[in-house]
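Changelog note: in this version the structure field was regenerated for every chain. One regenerated record is shown below for reference.
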Amino acid sequence: MPEREQDDHEREFDLRWADNAEHKEPSARARMLAARWKENPPEPQPFRAGPEHVGSRRRSSWVSTTLVLGCVAALIVLLGYINFRAAH
């Protein structure tokens, strides 16, 4: 068996062995959160936000979008004005 095929076979065996392990160690993030929550557990959160939260988030996204588009439009007008002044 060539070396590359042997490496692939060993890697496949290792992955199958790891997937079939009875005990899997949690990720570093999971361990960090478990330690933090042991001392200071998080407050329960609803599955979906209430209607009062949805409206304020939607409004703020429209304000942000309007602000960004307004800045882009102002920049286009400013560049057009500079180009117009330079041409004359």
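Spot check on this record: The chain has one domain: 3-87. The chain has a mean pLDDT of 79.
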